[in-house]
Structure formats: structure tokens, C-alpha cells
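User: Just a sanity check before I run the rest of the batch. Below are the C-alpha cells for the first item. I only need the designed sequence back.
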């Protein structure tokens, strides 16, 4: 499945590109910097980019998409007019499978309920040369690690835990669907040159401590925002002693500290993993350029000088941790949990222990957890809590079943869910969760925000390693410390659990009957993509209309948003996720969370046509039907939050022509530009106060739209008085062409025609 030609191509250019960058920078480079500088887009000039400041155009090698975010990304890609994706891409069906009964049953229910979405993703993949991983094949990040990640590569993925691939030495970054469309359509992908955080690992893990504890410790140090805008690079003897999958776990949870991504340099553990997963060819080439696939020695000799921040952790002294509840950065050593839980009044009875997920379902993880589960039986212990296992891939599931681990888990009452996200993303139909009882669960996933796993705001979720989850599930208590405490077995004897043991890789090798991969058609031109016209969940996109070349006049105010207006306020998540592939249906959530500056209420704006106060989407649909353009006014940092492209597509679809704000969150501003909207800022922020509820807007010089030139807006108030104000913009010539064409994709299509 892995693309050997792609990897050879990347490796053939890597040394020379890194050398050129090093000469230009005239200093040693970190490992992540080498990968970034080797992946500049063809039109991006090589320069000494300032970390944390300069925006740079990159050319990632691959794209991976999960089923929830892939829908809109692929619907847009279809409109690009391309016959195949410009870079190798894959789709993974993992988020839409709900865990309830057990793997097989749940999978068949999910295939039924999501049939039209899965069929759509399958046919688009087949047509446009995209690898398709069927429902049940596994979780995107585990499948990517097993098949596609490679040292020195660069990929983007439409999921925040794409960063998992840093475990195999790749710069892998989570993005929104719009970014995936750009890269698949052959456009550049822009990123602010990240800062570099170095984490030096000394010593060696032992006993109950696992790679998970390293990231739980780092999360405690950096907190959920501490990694923002930075790449975390791990190095040192301690780093070399970890397995590649352990490294993956650490990188995976880099998302929990807000890091752009995390990475380890190429080493022998990666070589072993590449060999074990059928990619010796990759390891062989990587072995020939070990110096390129690592930071320069001067960086390690003087890390304070070359990293913007440095953290040191001695693995020999590191203790196992439990992070939570409600936030992944609240780190408590297991040995202190007794007191901390008591102080905070957290329920100490563990109701469920859950292992697996994209974060922790490697063979090593499972074998170590199984070594604990096995002891329960041998020592006559009865497992107190419920226990579930979510394998990360069919390859892992098949291998651990062959090697008897599933049997071991089942003996302690373990239930194996489908190879999918399940409880990790809230796709868990947990019995009784609706009663909202206060309770504690422990899991080996990455996120533990309120309601994340089961929808119950009173579930206290703690994150830890799979082996610790297993021990706490057996004990049934959060304050159990397996390092010191004993448990009473069914004969009334006090017994102690021995330290976990496991295998880095399966001694008999990995095995699988059907991994669940479907290669695309060689020539997909004959493949028909079917979307039912009456579908609620999917809708083919019609290209947005091109600009008519005239000034926009007579535009009405739709809403003047006050205060924080994030992409969640503009396009809510929750139940709306169901409509991610249906632009018209999801547009019914447009701006329903934004606060109207004139009445401090949400989803209640004045309809200038009738004078009535109604829901935002409803009012906008009436303007659209009447052929009246509209304008949205916003406050500071408008559109912060996720890179969700729906927040830009919905207003565009419903006929909003311009969004004028005090300031933009940059990604949202770019998304507006890509969708052919006007994203503008007040030249004088105080002009925000001039905007009245019944205003009409005339753009008087849009016909002269040019880079660096302000636009003039005439604001006509209800009493006939007028204000003329200046608006700034950041459109370059290319982006103005997007506006003229109606969207960036329209322009690509014209260029491809
Ligand atoms: Fe994400 Fe967990 Fe799935 S973090 S990819 S939801 S297993």
C-alpha cells in the first residue's frame, strides 16, 4: 500500500535541499527545520524564515482524511476539475462508527446508518485516485503509521491527531478540509514558520512507567496552550530507547498542548517498525541518510541556543501519571491520586476502563495491558469495573487475537469494540449516560474534556497508559497504586500486581487477512459519483457565482456581531456534524451562536424587509430570495477557533457578500478569500460603532480592487444620513483573482479547462 515511488522521490531531493538551506541559514538545523525547508512549494523562494513570524508556502507529500471531514473536502475537490489528486491521498472511515454492543455488531449497524456517506466516499476515492480504507479497517492515525508515515516526509491530515505520524519521524500536521483541498488540487499549503521546543529525554523508562507518561508529564508542564505555534522535537538517549509506536503516542498527544506537531528523529526503533510493517525498502534508504534525518550534532550539544524553549525529563525518575478530569494537562502522579482525589471530591470508584484508540493501541500497548489482565486471572482477582478495548487497526486486532490477548481480555470481562474511534470521539452509546450521574472512567485516549466520551457532563475522565487503565479497572478504584498497593482476591488473600511486560513488536510478526484497503481505479474517468438528490446528509456543490465586475450596492446588514465570534459561533458543531456533507442543510446553523450587538441576543436579528426579529439563517434566506446582498459586521479576532471551512462556505452559499470586522483570525480570513468572499477590516476600528441596525451599504470603488489599496464603503443610515469609511484588506493579486472567479476552486477549474 505504501507508495515506494513517492518516498524515493522525496529522498532523492532531501539531502541537497537540506544542504542548500543550511548554507543559507549558516547555522545548524533542528530535524523538523530540515524537513520543512526541504518541502518548500515550487514558487516559494528559499529564505531564512523567522520562526513564529513568517508565512511560508509548503508542498506536503501526502494527505489523509477521516470520514467526517473528508465529505466537504471531497465535495469541493470534485469542483476543482482535477482528474486525480495532485499528491497521494487516503480516506479513512473511522469517526462514524458508534460503539455500543461489540465490534462486529456495531460495525454492521454503522455501515447501515452511514451507507450513503460511506458509498459516496468510496466512489469519490475510486474516481480520483484516493486510497480508501473501509469502515472497520481502523483509525486513521494508526493506519497511517502502519502504512504511510515515513521519516523525513511531510503530510497534512484533516484531523488534529494527524501529528501521531511524528512517531515515525514525519512532519505531520492536522488541518481543516479546505487545506486538504488545496494540496490535493496542487496548490501551496501555507503555514507560519513554527517555533521549536526541544524536549531532552535522558534515562530509561521502567516498571509501570510508559511513553504515555512522558506526554502526560509534558502536558502538565506546557498546559493546553503551551505548544501553540511550535513544533516539539524530542531527542536524547531516552528518546532512542522508546519504541516507534511509543513515540507515536507522545506525538499524538502533542495536539493536547496545542503544538503544530511533534517529532522524533530517525533511529533504530523506527527502522525496526518499518521492517515489521513491510517497509524495509524505506528503512534501507533512510539508513543511508541518517544525518539528514536528524538534527545537526551542534543542536544537541547546545540545545538552549537552537530551540526556543527547552524541557528536560529524566525517564529513570519519571512516575506514572493520571491526567484529568476534564482537561488533559492536569497531571497527577498515580502515587498522589489518593490525596488529590479526596481533596477535590472526585469519585474514586472506576466504572469503566477503556484502552486502545488512535493514541494507544499498538502491539506493545496491548501486550503490556494483557500482561496485567492475565495476572487478574492467575491471582484470583475479580475485575471490578467494566473494561473495553478499541483496536487501532484491523492489522493490530487480527494479530492480538492470533496471539491470545483478546482472549485474555475477555476472561476479565473485556469487550472489544470495532476498530474505530468510538468512545474516543463521543461515539459511545454508553448505557445510562443520559442519567448524567457523577462517575469516573479511566482511558488511554488523548482528550478528556467534559462530555467527550459519553456525553455525560458529570463523567470524570482520566487519561493514562493502557497498562495503568487495566490495573485500575481490575481494582475498580482511581486511588489504587499498583506500585505499592495490594488487592484482596476471591480467596481473601492480599495479592499484588507485578509490573507490566510486553513486546515492542509481535514476535511472530504482524498478520491480517483483510486489512480493509481498497485501491482506486487506475483510470477513474468511468466511475460515477452518486449523490441522491433527496439526501439529507450529502449535496453536490454548485460552483459559486463569479463576480459580475460591478460595485456591490444596496447591501443590507445581516448581523453586527458583538464580542467573541469563533468558527463555532459561525458554524456550530454538535448535532450539526451530521450535515457536514450537505452545505444547504448545515447552513441552517449559520451564525446562530453570534451575539447581535443591538439586542445582546443570539440568533435574533432584524429583518429589514419586514421589521421582524427572526433567526439569522431564516432572515438571510429571505434576503437571498429577494436578490439582496448582505454584509456581516464583526468584532476583534473574528473567526478564531478551528479551521472549519463551513464557517466561510455557509455565508457564501446563503448570499452574504462581505464580512467586515475589527480584526480576523488569519485562517478564517484566508478561508473567506478562498470561497470568493470579501473579508475586510475597518481602517479605523471605531467605525464599527457607526454601524446601525437598518444600514445599507454601497461599495463605491470595488471595481478598482487591487493589492494594498483601501476600499471605500458608503454606509447609508435609516434617516438618510451617510458615513463614508475606509476598509483595509490583505488580498494579493492571486487572491483578488479568486474573488473575481467566485472562489479559488473556480479559478483552478478555469486554469485546468
Ligand atoms: Fe481522533 Fe480518537 Fe479517533 S483522537 S482519530 S477520535 S480515535
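Assistant: Here's the designed sequence for the first item:
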Amino acid at each position: 500500500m505504501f507508495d515506494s515511488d513517492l518516498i524515493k522521490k522525496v529522498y532523492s531531493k532531501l539531502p541537497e535541499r537540506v544542504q542548500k538551506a543550511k548554507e543559507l541559514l549558516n547555522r545548524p538545523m533542528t530535524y523538523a527545520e530540515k524537513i520543512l525547508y526541504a518541502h518548500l512549494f515550487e514558487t516559494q523562494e528559499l529564505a531564512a524564515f523567522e520562526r513564529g513570524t513568517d508565512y511560508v508556502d509548503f508542498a506536503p507529500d501526502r494527505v489523509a482524511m477521516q470520514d467526517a471531514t473528508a465529505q466537504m473536502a471531497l465535495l469541493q475537490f470534485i469542483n476543482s476539475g482535477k482528474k486525480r489528486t495532485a499528491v497521494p491521498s487516503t480516506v479513512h472511515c473511522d469517526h462514524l462508527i458508534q460503539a455500543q454492543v461489540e465490534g462486529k455488531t456495531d460495525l454492521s449497524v454503522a455501515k447501515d446508518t452511514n451507507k450513503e456517506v460511506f458509498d459516496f466516499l468510496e466512489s469519490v476515492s475510486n474516481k480520483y485516485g484516493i486510497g480508501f480504507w473501509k469502515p472497520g479497517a481502523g483509525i486513521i492515525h494508526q493506519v497511517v503509521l502502519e502504512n504511510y508515515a515515513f521519516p523525513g516526509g511531510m503530510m497534512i491530515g484533516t484531523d488534529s491527531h494527524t501529528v501521531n505520524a511524528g512517531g515515525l519521524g514525519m512532519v505531520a500536521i492536522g488541518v481543516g478540509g479546505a487545506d486538504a483541498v488545496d494540496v490535493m488540487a496542487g496548490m501551496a499549503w501555507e503555514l507560519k514558520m513554527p517555533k521549536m521546543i526541544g524536549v531532552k529525554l535522558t534515562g530509561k523508562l521502567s516498571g509501570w512507567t510508559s511513553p504515555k507518561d512522558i506526554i502526560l508529564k509534558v502536558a502538565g508542564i506546557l498546559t493546553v496552550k503551551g505548544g501553540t505555534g511550535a513544533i516539539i522535537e524530542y531527542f536524547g538517549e531516552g528518546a532512542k530507547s522508546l519504541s516507534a509506536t511509543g513515540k507515536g503516542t507522545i506525538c499524538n498527544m502533542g495536539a493536547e498542548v496545542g503544538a503544530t506537531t511533534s517529532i522524533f528523529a530517525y533511529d533504530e526503533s523506527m527502522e525496526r517498525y518499518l521492517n515489521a510493517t513491510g517497509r524495509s525498502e524505506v528503512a534501507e534508504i533512510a539508513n543511508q541518510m541518517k544525518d539528514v534525518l536528524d538534527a545537526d550534532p551542534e543542536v544537541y550539544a547546545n540545545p538552549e541556543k537552537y530551540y526556543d524553549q527547552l524541557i528536560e525529563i529524566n525517564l529513570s525518575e519519571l512516575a506514572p501519571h493520571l491526567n484529568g478530569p476534564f482537561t488533559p494537562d492536569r497531571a497527577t502522579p498515580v502515587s498522589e491520586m489518593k490525596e488529590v482525589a479526596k481533596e477535590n471530591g472526585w469519585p474514586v470508584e472506576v466504572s469503566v476502563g477503556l484502552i486502545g484508540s488512535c493514541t494507544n493501541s499498538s502491539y506493545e500497548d496491548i501486550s503490556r495491558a494483557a500482561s496485567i489482565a492475565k495476572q487478574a486471572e492467575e491471582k484470583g482477582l475479580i475485575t471490578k469495573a467494566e473494561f473495553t478495548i478499541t483496536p487501532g487497526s484491523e492489522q493490530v486486532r487480527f494479530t492480538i487475537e492470533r496471539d491470545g490477548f483478546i482472549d485474555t481480555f475477555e476472561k476479565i470481562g473485556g469487550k472489544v469494540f470495532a476498530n474505530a474511534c468510538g468512545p474516543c470521539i463521543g461515539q459511545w452509546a454508553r448505557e445510562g449516560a443520559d442519567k448524567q450521574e457523577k462517575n469516573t472512567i479511566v482511558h488511554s485516549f488523548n482528550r478528556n474534556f467534559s462530555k467527550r466520551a459519553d456525553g455525560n457532563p458529570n463523567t470524570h475522565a482520566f487519561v493514562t497508559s493502557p497498562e495503568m487503565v487495566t490495573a485500575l479497572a481490575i481494582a475498580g478504584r482511581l486511588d489504587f497504586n499498583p506500585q505499592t498497593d495490594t488487592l484482596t482476591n476471591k480467596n481473601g488473600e492480599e495479592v499484588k500486581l507485578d509490573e507490566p511486560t510486553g513486546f515492542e513488536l509481535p514476535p511472530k510478526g504482524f498478520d491480517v487477512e483483510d486489512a480493509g484497503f481498497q485501491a482506486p481505479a487506475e483510470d477513474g474517468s468511468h466511475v460515477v459519483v452518486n449523490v441522491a438528490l433527496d439526501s439529507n446528509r450529502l449535496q453536490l456543490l454548485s460552483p459559486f457565482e463569479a463576480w459580475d465586475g460591478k460595485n456591490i450596492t444596496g447591501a443590507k446588514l445581516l448581523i453586527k456581531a458583538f464580542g467573541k465570534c469563533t468558527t463555532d459561533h459561525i458554524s456550530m458543531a454538535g448535532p450539526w456534524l451530521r450535515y457536514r456533507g450537505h452545505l444547504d442543510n448545515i447552513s441552517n446553523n449559520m451564525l446562530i451562536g453570534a451575539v447581535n450587538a443591538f439586542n445582546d441576543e443570539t440568533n435574533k436579528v432584524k429583518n429589514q424587509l419586514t421589521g421582524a426579529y427572526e433567526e439569522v439563517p431564516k432572515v438571510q434566506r429571505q434576503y437571498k430570495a429577494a436578490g439582496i446582498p448582505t454584509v456581516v459586521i464583526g468584532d476583534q479576532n473574528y473567526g478564531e477557533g478551528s479551521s472549519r471551512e463551513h464557517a466561510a462556505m455557509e455565508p457564501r452559499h446563503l448570499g452574504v457578500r462581505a464580512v467586515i470586522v475589527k480584526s480576523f483570525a488569519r485562517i478564517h480570513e484566508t478561508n473567506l478569500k478562498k470561497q470568493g468572499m470579501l473579508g475586510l477590516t475597518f481602517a479605523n476600528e471605531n467605525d464599527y460603532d457607526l454601524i446601525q441596525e437598518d444600514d445599507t451599504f454601497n461599495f463605491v470603488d470595488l471595481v478598482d480592487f487591487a493589492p494594498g489599496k483601501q476600499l471605500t464603503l458608503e454606509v447609508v443610515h435609516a434617516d438618510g444620513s451617510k458615513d463614508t469609511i475606509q476598509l483595509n484588506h490583505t488580498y494579493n493579486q492571486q487572491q483578488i483573482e479568486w474573488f473575481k472567479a467566485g472562489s479559488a476552486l473556480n479559478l483552478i477549474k478555469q486554469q485546468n479547462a
